[in-house]
Structures are given as C-alpha cells and as structure tokens.
Design goal:
Length: 522
C-alpha cells in the first residue's frame, strides 16, 4: 500500500485531507448517537477516540512519529518494538474512550469482552501491515476467491467484524435508530475511508478541484463549530453559566433540580387526613409558586412553612403553566380533601389565560435539528427575542395585554371562575387569600402597565370575597435601586429569584398573623 501511494505521486496536503474527513465522520457519528444529550464525558470520549483512530495512526507513520517510537523502543531496552508500542498506545486510547462513554456500570463479562475485542481489533489493524500479515491475507484471499479479490477486501471485512463486535457487546440489545446510523458512520470513518483513500482512485478524488472546494466549505463549518460552537456548548453546560452568565438552556443546575411528590407537586408528601391541632394552608399558583428557577427549599411555600412553625402545614399545589381555571379545578379535585384552614391563590398577571390560550409558540429553527444541543436552544432563544424586538412575531407582552380586554375571552372566563371560586370558599367557610405577586420586568413590552394589571387583579378577587393584597407597593420599596436582573431566577429566566420568594413568604406570613390565622413565632 505504501508503494501505491508513492507511485501515485501523493502531494503534500493529502494526509491532512484524510485526517479532516475522518474527524468529520467521527464527529457526525457522535452527534447522531447522542440522542439524549451530549454530556461532558461524551466530548471527552470523542477526543480520545479521534486520537486513537485518526491522529495517532497517521502521525506514527510520519518521520517524527517513527523517531519517537524508536526512541521509546530503545528506552524499553529492546523488549518492545515500534509496532508493539504503536499498538499498545492505540489500544489504551480506544479502551479509555469506551470506558468514558459508558454512563451506567457494566457487567464484568461485558467489560472483559470489550477489552478482548478492542485488543484483537487494534492488533489486527497493525499486524496486517507487515510482510507476514500481508502474506497470510494474500493466501487466504486466494483460497476464498480464486484471486478475484485483493487482500484489502479481507482486511476490511476483518476490521468491520471487530468493530461491529465491540458495539454489540457494549450497547443494549435494542438500539435506537440514531445509534444504528452512528454505527454506520463510524464504520465508514475507521474502516472504509482509511483504506480507500490510499488507493489510486481515492487519491484522484482528494486532488480534484470539486473536492478541494467542498473541503473549503467543510473546514469552515468544522472550524466554526470547534472554535465557537464547541466552547459555547461546554460553557452552557456548566452550572456556573446557568446560574450567573447565560442562563439555563438544557438541564437544570444540580442544586435547582426540582423534586416532586407522588401527586406531582413540588412539595413533600402530605397525608389527606388532617392531624389534630394543625393549621393547614393550601397554596395554588403557577410557575411562580412552583418555584421555576430556584431550589426546593427556596420556594416561598417552604419558606412560609419554616416561618410559621411545626403547628402549621403548608401544602403547595402549584404547577408551571397553570391559569386560574386550572388552579380552581385542582382545588376542587384535591385541595378540599385536605380540609384547609386557609387557601392562598398566588396570582400573577398571566393567570387570565383562556383555553385555548392563543399565545404564539416559540420559533424553532435550530432546535428543529434532531441533535440535543444547548447551543441550539440558546440560538433559538436569541432569535425569538430579536423577533419580539423587531415586531416580527406576536410578542409575549402583546399577548398578555389581550388578556385584559374587557370583551375578550381571557377576562370574561377569569371573572366567571373566580366568582365560582369565591362562592365555594364561602360555602365551606374557608378564608381565601389572593396575593398579587409582582416581579422584575416580566412584561417589558406590554401596553397595560404592570401596576394597572395588579390593581385589576386585586379588585377582581376582592369583589368575589377574597382577602386580596397587591404586593407591588411593598415590592417596589423593598427592592428599590436593585438591578432588575438581580431579581431574576436565572440570567435568561424572569421568574422571581430566591430573594424575591423570601419577600413573598414574609408578606404572606405577616398578613396571616395580623388576621389571627397563624400563631406568632417566638
């Protein structure tokens, strides 16, 4: 094969093209395979495998690589030859890559099988290059095909069998389609491509003008990903970035993971039967009360429970995306059974949302690509914000304004539901509180001012018998001079921060104490 390359007059740069496309194949394979996300260990695996099957084999055939291997062989006092060293390093690379990629513990037999398959696969690749290996391949080929096929065919078949065996041993019995597609790409990357590009036809393709132009485009895309996309992806996946820099675009930071009880509420378990001598408070709300973007112990329901003491049980029945209709139905379905002494509705300005809501869905441009990358979610987020700013789409602010149209379905349905809600609480003799929760810059493109919406909500609840309290005046005083984004849960999430949740809890606690519904803490 070396003679074929020399006779073809390989010019400088062809080896770089082989490396480039082999790396591209591997990168595509990993992007396809990671159907459930790209954890950091997957990126580390990619680097290790590229070193094993792309860079290392090419580099060790160059003069500089050969000199280093010879020096290492001399240092081993002759016990290890150049070929053995090349094999051992490649085997270590491959084994390290497979060990990194596993996300769950392997049975011992599967790990042992993997070691054996990788060893045989790498050894086969190295052994078939020297004269002894070529002679055996030629004899075997002649016996099998009467000379119609070359020894390269048998070499390819052997490499393919080893690679396929490794994947069958290391992956579950049932593969997703993405994993199968990734296997095909990997086989092309580490088996077919390296062999074919050393043939005269492969060399002619590498030198063609069309291929050179395609390479220019491929290099541009690859460099963009490596220089910009890959670092951005790595940064977006760090907890520090999610909490302080760019926000959450994928999984939650570890300390903000939301834990739910058996009823799917973000709360501890509660017995339906009320214990003797305990005051029960049921909280209803949406993502504000649910605590989007803050830790379990920081949501105002938990803070209120700690402030109120052990004789008060706070039951949080809030879920993200719920409107007042959902909250009322949940209370009738589950909340009444708890025999609450107090019901708190944590109201926000979008709770008037009708069904169907009419809110425009987010544009999905990059996230429509079936690869689970935080970078794509980040780009779509920025694209949607730009569309809102330029008036190219119905903004959130415009949609929320429509809820307060006196003739619109949002306002009409909301008045009907809170009227029914008030009558139910009155018939059950349960004090109902409506706390209007302000937030920082939740709707910066609305025509209706936040103050006006808070006032309308307060008046609406008061008219049907709730004890309604607009927290905006106290909120403005408490956080005067504080930068708006310091009150957000995350840099890209305008839900209230832990500091604001604490403020909500303090306001609720003080009001309930004044009304004589809670004991005063010592």
């Amino acid at each position: 094969m070396d003679e074929t390359i020399k006779s073809a007059g390989e010019r400088p740069g062809t080896g770089a093209l082989r490396l480039l496309y082999q790396f591209a194949f591997l990168l595509v394979a990993f992007l396809v395979a990671c159907h459930s996300g790209l954890p950091l260990e997957r990126f580390a695996t990619l680097v290790v495998l590229v070193a094993a099957v792309v860079v290392w084999p090419e580099w060790t055939r160059a003069p500089s690589g050969t000199r280093l291997l010879k020096k290492a062989a001399v240092a081993s006092q002759g016990y290890l030859g150049v070929s053995v060293l090349r094999f051992l390093c490649q085997f270590v690379f491959l084994l390290g890559g497979f060990l990194l990629v596993r996300l769950k513990p392997w049975p011992s037999y599967r790990l042992a099988a993997l070691v054996a398959v990788v060893a045989v696969g790498v050894l086969w690749q190295e052994w078939t290059r020297p004269p002894s290996g070529r002679r055996l391949l030629k004899k075997t080929t002649a016996a099998l095909s009467n000379g119609h096929s070359g020894d390269g065919t048998l070499k390819l078949l052997g490499q393919f069998a080893f690679l396929l065996g490794a994947f069958l041993l290391t992956y579950p019995k049932t593969w997703p389609t993405g994993r199968l597609a990734a296997l095909v790409v990997l086989v092309v990357a580490v088996v077919v491509w390296p062999e074919w590009v050393h043939t005269p036809s492969g060399l002619r393709l590498l030198r063609s003008a069309a291929f050179q132009n395609l390479t220019t485009v491929a290099v541009s895309v690859l460099l963009t990903f490596v220089v910009i996309g890959l670092p951005l992806e790595m940064v977006l996946r760090t907890d520090y970035s999610k909490r302080h820099l760019l926000g959450r675009y994928g999984a939650w930071p570890e300390d903000l993971v939301q834990h739910r009880n058996s009823r799917r509420y973000r709360d501890v378990e509660h017995e339906v039967e009320k214990p003797a001598g305990v005051t029960r408070i049921v909280i209803l709300g949406d993502s504000f009360a649910f605590g989007q973007g803050v830790a379990d112990e920081e949501i105002f329901a938990r803070v209120l429970a700690r402030m109120a003491g052990p004789q008060v049980e706070v039951i949080n029945m809030a879920k993200g995306g719920w409107n007042t209709i959902n909250q009322f139905m949940a209370f009738k379905r589950e909340g009444l059974a708890y025999e609450p002494d107090v019901v708190i509705v944590a109201a926000v300005t979008n709770d008037l949302e009708p069904s169907p809501s009419g809110q425009q869905l987010q544009w999905r441009v990059f996230t429509s690509i079936p690869v689970n990358l935080d970078s794509f979610r980040f780009l779509d987020y920025q694209l949607n914000r730009l569309g809102d700013t330029l008036g190219l789409r119905l903004s959130y602010g415009e949609w929320e304004d429509s809820l307060y149209d006196p003739e619109g379905p949002g306002w009409t349905q909301w008045q009907l539901i809170i009227h029914e809600f008030g009558e139910l609480l009155s018939s059950e003799r349960i004090p109902g509180y409506a706390f209007i929760l302000p937030s920082a810059g939740w709707c910066d493109t609305c025509v209706f001012s936040p103050e006006e919406k808070y006032r309308l909500l307060e008046e609406g609840f008061a008219e049907v018998g709730f004890r309604a309290y607009n927290l905006f005046p106290a909120y403005s005083q408490e956080f005067e001079g504080v930068p708006e984004k310091d009150l957000w849960a995350l840099p890209n999430d305008r839900h209230p921060s832990a500091r604001v949740h604490k403020f909500y809890a303090e306001q609720m606690y003080s009001r309930l104490v004044v009304d004589g519904l809670l004991p005063v803490s010592p």
